[in-house]
């Protein structure tokens, strides 16, 4: 692990690595479909509040623990508090990261299939209905989507095993900005579509009566998922930050960039949804039915589609690497396993649950609990339950348990910089974040009503 520290000595490296983990399928795939399912602008409104009032302070809390100790998740808690129960934070992180890795790989597998289709020109023609039927056939077939899931996890394995994170990090430093530019180009294309105003109204004109506990729980879960929050990924990355990195500023930049990509994805998807006669409530399949329609109508659609899915693949793998690294580091450090073996174990677990998740769109679709398939359960429990619990624990730990001087030293870089938002951040970490997460949680479980 120690060789990684050198990687994050530049300011750009700090932002690129953390944004690499944050920006991924969560922004381009999950945000539009969650927004679609939860009624559009009202969801976006609550989402923004969650990012700024809960997301930024919890990122700061993870950064304080990580940068302040320069240790991995478990080591950091051991160093800061002798009470062993705080270590539960790192176990939650390991469990949640394995769950996310499993279902995330199914969607990353879909992007590989789409890349394949884009390369063979299959995406160049057809209408939304054709694409939707084809996609349904693809994800209900017992082997197709399973195969792509496994293939994605094997690629992830090879990258991790060879320890070429530096290479990937460097590649993503180049590719992530290209992805940003391309997304902006696509959004201009969508703004020119016939029903773009309907799409924009869906995304930006909130109907506040649509805000229900389910919407709020969904928005908070999306904020945690999209910012890679609550499972110690940001703690681990920040343990490689130098002492000059400004924590509050970095946390804000990450949250703003991540939110920007999510909103741009919405601006691409919803005008297209309305212009092509699709419905926003489609769920996880939404963007996979809409993107091919966009490409088939765009001039130079072939090139754009190939480029887009290559970039999306890279955005996914920089995220899966960050989530795999948590459990690999844990097995290596806690069970003294060899890195290769730990990587195999992590991949093995993800393959088992990934295959089950892939099959839950087809042959296993009947196996449900509370109307949720295996895929839905992994997705819901990790994002809407485990990550917020991680967030509560982090904010209480940093706000109330850790020595105040330690927190101040970290936020102000040992008193060398003036942080104008210092008091606000402390207030958010101590009160606003934990209380609002708990309230949202209880209302989601129907234990309290507003
Ligand atoms: N934040 C990533 C995304 O939006 O795609 C997903 C993610 C990465 C979640 C890393 C959790 C994690 F540890």
The fraction of residues in strands falls at under 5%
How does the overall form come out from the CA principal axes?
globular
Rounded mean pLDDT score? 89
- Just give the CATH class: Mainly Alpha
Q: What integer value in Å does the Rg equal? A: 21 Å
User: What ligand molecules are bound, each kind once?
Assistant: 4-fluoro-L-phenylalanine
| Tally of individual domains | 1
Uncertain runs are 1-7
Q: How far apart lie the N and C ends? A: 46 Å
| Helix content range | over 70%
Largest sheet: none
CATH domain fold name: Hydantoin permease
The gist of it:
The chain has 450 residues and is an all-alpha fold.
Write up this protein.
- With 450 residues, the protein is mainly alpha-helical.
- It has a single domain (11-444), classed as Orthogonal Bundle (Hydantoin permease).
- It has 18 helices and no strands.
- It has helices at residues 11-22, 25-37, 41-69, 73-80, 88-119, 128-140, 144-161, 165-191, 196-204, 213-226, 233-238, 247-275, 286-297, 301-334, 339-359, 374-401, 404-411, 422-444.
- It is globular and about 60 Å long.
- The protein starts with 10 loop residues before the first helix and ends in a 6-residue tail after the last helix.
- Residues 1-7 have low confidence and may be disordered.
- 4-fluoro-L-phenylalanine binds at residues 21-22, 24-27, 97, 100, 225-226, 228, 231, 233, 319, 322-323.
- 4-fluoro-L-phenylalanine (PFF) binds next to helix 1, helix 2, helix 5, helix 10 and helix 14.
């Amino acid at each position: 692990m120690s060789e990684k520290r050198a990687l994050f000595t530049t300011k750009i490296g700090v932002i690129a690595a953390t944004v690499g983990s944050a920006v991924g399928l969560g922004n381009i795939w999950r945000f539009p479909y969650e927004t679609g399912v939860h009624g559009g602008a009202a969801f976006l409104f609550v989402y923004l509040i969650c990012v700024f009032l809960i997301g930024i302070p919890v990122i700061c809390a993870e950064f304080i623990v990580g940068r302040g100790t320069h240790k991995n998740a478990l080591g950091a808690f051991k160093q800061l508090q002798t009470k062993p129960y705080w270590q539960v934070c790192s176990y939650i992180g390991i469990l949640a990261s394995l769950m996310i890795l499993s279902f995330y790989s199914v969607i990353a597998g879909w992007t590989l299939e789409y890349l394949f289709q884009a390369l063979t020109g299959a995406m160049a023609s057809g209408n939304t209905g054709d694409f939707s039927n084809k996609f349904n056939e693809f994800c209900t077939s017992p082997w197709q989507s399973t195969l792509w899931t496994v293939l994605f996890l094997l690629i992830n394995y090879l990258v991790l095993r060879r320890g070429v994170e530096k290479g990937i990090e460097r590649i993503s430093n180049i590719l992530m900005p290209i992805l940003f530019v391309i997304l902006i180009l696509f959004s201009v294309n969508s703004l020119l579509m016939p029903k773009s105003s309907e799409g924009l109204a869906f995304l930006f004109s909130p109907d506040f009566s649509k805000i229900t506990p389910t919407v709020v729980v969904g928005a908070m879960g999306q904020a945690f998922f999209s910012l890679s929050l609550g499972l110690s990924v940001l703690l681990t990355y920040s343990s490689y930050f130098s002492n000059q990195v400004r924590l509050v500023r970095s946390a804000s930049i990450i949250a703003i960039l991540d939110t920007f990509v999510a909103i741009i994805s919405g601006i691409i998807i919803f005008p297209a949804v309305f212009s092509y006669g699709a419905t926003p409530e489609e769920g996880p399949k939404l963007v996979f039915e809409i993107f091919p329609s966009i490409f088939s109508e765009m001039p130079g659609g072939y090139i754009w589609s190939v480029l887009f899915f290559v970039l999306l693949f890279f955005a996914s793998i920089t995220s899966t690497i960050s989530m795999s690294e948590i459990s690999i580091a844990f097995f290596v450090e806690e069970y003294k396993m060899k890195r290769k073996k730990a990587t195999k174990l992590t991949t093995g677990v993800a393959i088992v649950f990934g295959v089950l998740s892939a099959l839950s769109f087809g042959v296993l679709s009947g196996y449900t609990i509370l109307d949720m398939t295996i895929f839905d359960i992994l997705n819901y429990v990790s994002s809407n339950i485990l990550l917020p619990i991680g967030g509560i624990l982090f904010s209480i730990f940093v706000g109330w348990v850790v020595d105040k001087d330690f927190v101040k030293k970290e936020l102000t870089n040992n008193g060398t910089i003036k942080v104008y938002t210092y008091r606000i951040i402390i207030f958010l970490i101590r009160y606003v974040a934990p209380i609002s997460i708990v309230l949202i949680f209880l209302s989601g479980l129907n234990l309290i009503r507003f």
